[in-house]
Amino acid sequence: MNSFPQPQLSRRVFLSMLGVLAASGAGCSVPGTSPGTLSRKPSFHEQLFKTDVDHYIEASQRRVFDSLRRLAYKLYRRNPREWRKSADTLQHAVAQIFDVNHGWLLDSLSGRRGIDAMQLAFDPAFRGDRVQALMVGMGSMVQSAFAHQVGFYVLNDLSPQGFYNAARNIEIAAWKLATSRDEAGKLLLLSNEMGEINNLSFEREMGRIVGVLETLSDLLEIKTERIVIRMVQGIATAAFLPIP
Question: What is the 3-state secondary structure (H, E, C) of the chain?
Answer without folding.
Answer: CCCCCHHHHHHHHHHHHHHHHHHCCCCCECCCCCHHHHCCCCCHHHHHCCCHHHHHHHHHHHHHHHHHHHHHHHHHHHCHHHHCCCCCCHHHHHHHHHCCCCCCCCHHHCCCCHHHHHHHHCCCCCCCCHHHHHHHHHHHHHHHHCCCECCCCCCCCCCHHHHHHHHHHHHHHHHHHHHCECCCCCECCCCCECCCCCECHHHHHHHHHHHHHHHHHHHHHHHHCCCCCCCCCCCCCCCCCCCC
